[in-house]
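Take just one protein record:
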Amino acid sequence: MNKFFGESFQGFALVVALGFLCVLVNPARAIDIQEVRSPGGIKAWLVQDKSVPVLSLSFAFKTGGTAYDPKGREGLARMVAGLLDEGAGDLKSQDFQAQLQDTAARIRFSATTDKFRGSFRTLTANKEEAFRLLTLALNKPRFDAKPIERIRGQIIANLRRSAQDPDMIGSRAWYKAVFPTHPYGRPGDGTIGSVKNLAVDDLRGFMRRHLVRNSLFVAAAGDISPAELGKHLDQVFSRLPRSGVPGKISDMTPVSEGKIIVIDRKIPQSTVLFGHSGIKRDDPDWYIASVMNRILGGGGFSSRLMEEVREKRGLAYGVYSYLNPYDHSALYMGGVATANSRVADSLKVIRTEWKKMAEKGVTEKELVAAKTYINGSFPLRLNSTRRIAGLLLAVQINHLGIDYLKNRPKFINAVTVADIKRVAQKLLRSSALTVVVVGQPKGIKSTP
């Protein structure tokens, strides 16, 4: 199964036992977060839940994302992510995967733009063997020749598919336009040439630079005690190097000059990506911007963009916007896909609503509805050990504090109409939107 083209299936027992049991967590109950420190000094956050015999672990290293790939070695982080469970210690690839399946455990690695991440799920009864396999994957990956060539082939095949996909074509062009000289503007999956150049030494060098203890965040949820978790934290992570030399990425304000880029493709429907500079997650105005975005384009059918573009005019099936913060920059982005003949009208409406929000803000009715939804829907995200562990990890990474879940509703409820108008005037600039269109849009041409 191609790891880079859909999820792999690891056995009926895993799907039934983990997939079903993980959703039995009651989202209505209070979430009690404990900070655990192992005997060896590894820190983690834990939500202990004995109601289901499942344990989920999420972890991340604060460097090691695709932006840290050396120039000419793009795709390295994702190559490592694809290979860590392809044999470790004395277990070759097939043996390692067979033991994972027999244990009904799931181990996944991934590389986002900034972070290298891992996730782990197991039945409590099998946790000893499952933790042993995770320990091997992180500490003794084999990087054998056959798995390397197989994963390399999967990545290259995916790159060739992506080269024909309008969404991927547009995304690559957009990021290159707003980050022309920054690592964020390089393709995270690499190029066929860069992936072909990756060697075992590159993989092992990546491990030494990024998979280190002083860069580690860990979160756990499920049927495990603090003492047990501490033991396994040391088992899995204590033998990693204490520190590495990851390289430095500088902060950058994205280029936001209102440029239009049209990429000609003979397809009946154009894909459009638009955006400009945004707001970082640690900005004091983050919650205000989040509520504003819910009203403008992040609220599905209740958003202004959907109402104006789809419901009133029938220009597109869907349109959206979202805040997109990174460690070293921030974006406010959106997208729409529509018939070539309707692209110009769709963009005109989007710009109008962008400008209207900046000039007039929101109504009290819109604000109340947005806050009610944001606070009311949030507990529904806590309906599995996997989701709880993932949320705890995000809270740690963003330094939001262990009391974040308790305080979050207050942050949302504190947002006022005046707050949104102030932030919208500062953030939204319709003339600064960088727009990439893939297709043959009528009445739209690239600007110099």
In short: Residues 260-439 form a domain with the Cytochrome Bc1 Complex; Chain A, domain 1 fold (CATH 3.30.830.10). Residues 145-162 form the longest helix (18 residues). The longest strand covers residues 54-64. The chain has a mean pLDDT of 94.
